[in-house]
Amino acid sequence: MSLPIYDSETARRTVLLRRPPDEVSLPAAVQERIAALFGEPLTAEQAVARIVSDVRRRGDEALREWTRKLDGADLSGGLQIPPEDCRAALDSLPDDLRAALQTAAERIRQFHRRQPALSWIEQNPEGTLGQLIRPIERVGVYVPGGSAPLPSSVLMSVIPARVAGVSRVVVCTPPGRDGSVNPVILAACALAEVDAVYRLGGAQAIAAMAFGTPGLPAVDKIVGAGGLFVTLAKRQVFGVVGIEGLAGPTETLVIADESANPRRVAADLLAQAEHDPLATALLLTPSRRLAEAVAAQVDELLGDTAADRLERAEIIRASLAARGGAVVTRDLDEAVDLCNAYAPEHLNLVVRDGWAWLPKIRNAGGVFLDEDSCEVMGDYIAGPSHVMPTGGSARYASPLNVWDFVKIVSLVGLNRAAVQQLSPLAERLALAEGLGAHALAARLRKG
User: Fold this and answer.
1) From 308, 333, 363, 405, which residue has the greatest number of CB atoms within 10 Å?
2) Residue 396: CB partners within 8 Å, gap ≥ 6?
3) Angle at which helices 416-432 and 436-443 cross, to 10°
4) Of the ranges 16-25, 294-303, 335-344, which is most confident?
5) CB-based burial label for 126 (10 Å; 0-12, 13-18, 19+)
6) β-strand pairing of 242-243 with 221-223
7) Is 272 marked as a binding-site residue?
8) What stretch or stretches form a coiled coil here (predicted)?
9) Is pLDDT at 360 greater than 70 in this prediction?
10) d(CA 38, CA 50)
């Protein structure tokens, strides 16, 4: 059986147990490659630190060297992809694909335009108080390449930044061995009006955007998901630049009852598992019958004789074996409690009267309500950004949105009468903190 079935107590100790990204065990092949590249065994954190430090010190030369070592690509022709190449890629798309991207872009744009991000200034007898909303000036977007290039991630990351008023948005995405970038990614960059696209991936791309090089000016904030090395690099450069979060492997949790269609639930789990062997696809249900039916459907859909042969079947099997499964819970209340504790990136709520259960959901990056409204709609076309908090960070973090691309500037314009009234209070508080110069500055405003 491709989909393991657990009781809730076993699941708490296994598939529902959260681990920090730096505790993820690296495959033996990756460990061997790190040792070969650096001449000694290193942890992922140590390897990333060396790459980041080298890019900070040697700039473009280090970028070319690490891209050659890690991606096998020659960047002697330049880091940046000519803008006309992006426009040509968009013009050459098949009509149906171009129309799909355009529709997705417009829906993403309209959704984020509804998000309030407004300055306010209040005039009162004391003077003026307010908040000024100012867009971040320069944003870097990391777009994964690899075995599944994601043009949708371009739209989902760049368009909210444009709606927020960011003046310069650049994209870094890893090149193939021939130095080229997937043309659909380039087309999406043109459609989203990206200012510059660079053929850079991995930790070296994050370091370049954070510290700047002659070929890639520094940005103020970096957003976008990537693999473990990208995530660790974002953590290491945080403080030099802002980041929207630390994205781990993608994850979906389905809460379903006996009313759910087993084949559809199975398909939703497969859709998540095909991203990555480290992806998580879990079903929580009080119905053992449903769990067994979904497991049977998973086997059928993964079979060699399936009508829709899945090209990434081996990735799906690896993901489900290591991190996936069905969890049979005592009831739906326990399923919801497990969900809130796990805080999934995506929650598919496939139960009778999903609206009645929605108020009980506290922690999730996105909720996909009822059977028709599956996560794949959110991945591509619904409107909200599909860049969502992973690794349990939905307990405190949000999907990428307009607020990720703006800053609040507090405005204080008190008049003389208000200052004279408030300065003795400010002076007293300053003295309580032992800050004499603060007290002096307040005291000089009394008269």
Assistant:
1) 405
2) none
3) 160
4) 335-344
5) middle
6) parallel
7) yes
8) none
9) yes
10) 9
Q: What is the length of the chain?
A: 447
61 labelled binding-site residue? no
Does this model's pTM top 0.90? My answer is yes
> How far, in Å, CA of 206 to CA of 98, rounded?
29
CA angle 321, 346, 299 (to 5 degrees): 30
Residue that is written with structure tokens 């310069």 in the block:
168
Catalytic residue, candidates 251, 346, 375, 427: 346
Distances (CA, A) of 24 to 98, 278, 391, 443: 38, 10, 12, 57
Residue located via tokens 């994601």: 150
What are the helix and strand counts (H, E) for the chain? 18, 15
Backbone angles phi, psi at 254, to 5 degrees: -110, 125
Question: What's the average model confidence in pLDDT over 417-432?
Answer: 96
Q: Annotation-wise, does 379 bind a ligand?
A: yes
Asked about 345 being catalytic, the answer comes back as yes
Give the pair of three-digit tokens for residue 122.
């209040």
| Catalytic entry in 251, 274, 345, 371 | 345
Angstrom distances, CA of residue 429 to CA of 45, 93, 414, 432: 44, 65, 18, 5
Beta pairing partners, 413: 128
Distance from C-alpha of 376 to C-alpha of 368, rounded to nearest angstrom: 10
Q: Tokens representing 136?
A: 């971040």
Alpha-carbon span 228 to 250, nearest angstrom = 12
Chain centroid to CA 12: 25
Coil/strand/helix, residue 293? helix
Q: What is the distance between the alpha carbons of residues 179 and 81, in angstroms, rounded to a whole number?
A: 10
Question: Which tokens is 358 given?
Answer: 């929605």
Contact assessment for residue 366 and residue 316, using Cβ atoms and an 8 Å cutoff: no
Instruction: Look up 84 and say whether it is catalytic.
Output: no
The annotation status of 112 as a binding-site residue, yes or no, is: no
Instruction: Supply the angle between the helices 288-302 and 262-273 in degrees, to the nearest 10.
Output: 60
Confidence of residue 149 (pLDDT cuts 50, 70, 90): confident
Please indicate if the annotation marks 304 as binding a ligand.
Answer: no
Which backbone phi and psi does 102 adopt, to 5 degrees? -65, -40
Residue type, 63: L
- Residue 193, both tokens: 């009006």
| CA distances, 264 to each of 93, 209, 259, 273 (Å) | 31, 41, 12, 14
